[in-house]
Amino acid sequence: MLVPSDTEKGWTMGWPGGGTVRRRFTLLYAGGFLGSGVLLLASAWIASGTRVTSRAPEATPEGPRGGSPDLASAERRIRELGGQLADMEAQQNHRLLVGSLIALALMTGASLLLGHLLAGHVLRPLRLITAATRRISAENLHQRLAVTGPADEVKELADTIDGLLERLEASFAAQRRFVGNASHELRTPLATMRASLDVAVAKPEPSAQTVALAERLRAELDRVEHLLNGFLDLARAQHATPAASEAVVPLGGLVRAALTARGAEITARSLTVDDEVRAGVRTRGDEALLSRMVENLLENAIVHNRTGGWIRLSTEHTAGESVLVVETGGNVLEQARVERLTEPFERLGAARTGPEGSSGLGLSIVAAIVSAHGGRLDLLARSQGGLRVTVALPAVPGAEGAAP
What we know:
The protein is an alpha+beta fold. The chain folds into 3 domains: 1-43 and 85-135, no CATH class; 175-239, Helix Hairpins, CATH 1.10.287; 248-394, Heat Shock Protein 90. The chain has 9 helices and 9 strands. The strands form 3 sheets. It has a 5-stranded mixed beta sheet with strand order 4-6-7-9-8, covered by helices on one side. It has a two-stranded antiparallel ribbon with strand order 1-2. The two termini are 62 Å apart. Mean pLDDT is 77; it is low at 1-19, 51-64 and 350-355.
């Protein structure tokens, strides 16, 4: 039966506080067997207690009162034999009852075992469906359960889930296409507005107001263009499906290139960089996407940092993974809010906006790139203040010790 669940808005099959479906099926099967066995045993006991008796023949009128001595002796013998027969019948009924109870107990145990096996066999397709559904995520919505077999309730459930996955895949694809197409289409009006500003400023002796307005509009256009580029990178990362044949990418080399490109910003903010990048830490995938991932992490560490603060960068091999860690100091952050930073446009407030603003897509792009390469991204609010970002990607076997 279905009962409402207190912890979530939905329905749960079974009873409140019940165990797994397999356990409930086992108990139902064993309970039904036990009840029918008790009913059968009670019916047999009642039937065995019904006796058919007949009256002893009375003395003939011709005989003396009380009958002859031989007749009286025979009657006593008959009564003794009747008593013995009744005792034997009572003992037989007792043994029958005890034996039936023992047999019922044994069969109850056997029914529990048989019910457990049968319930497992019946629920096996559901377990397979559950395991397959758990493996399907936003990155592999193209996969289907594709359950074969008779058109029963299990196949109907699997087909329903396949239909749901198909609709989700279409929705995700439409969303990503919209983001990519909108970003591309908006580039044209942005280029037109930028050209119009250049023409206005290039006129002979432009007014001071015109120049000031042009500078302000250029700054806003740069922000919009930065946001559009973020949308494009996010859409590309979400569509990316890196193959095993793609190039081997050294994480150390990507970190060095990002540090060189951001050297002026690091110097301007008086940041101290603790470089613990090790050689030979490599992964396999799209080098352009992985480079954008490292650049976003370093940009996040620079922009959302205190003036005169510090940044620690490190790479290492751990349990078959190539790990990149970017750690910064700063204010004490809430872990619950930090975990939401991978969502688009999620920020920790104005204090982390930075002097040049932020699109709010940096870590969203990082999360998409890491997921596309089969890795994992961990965000940890340091107890001393600041943020620790860990990226773990599949390592290339035998790359340890190679040049960065």
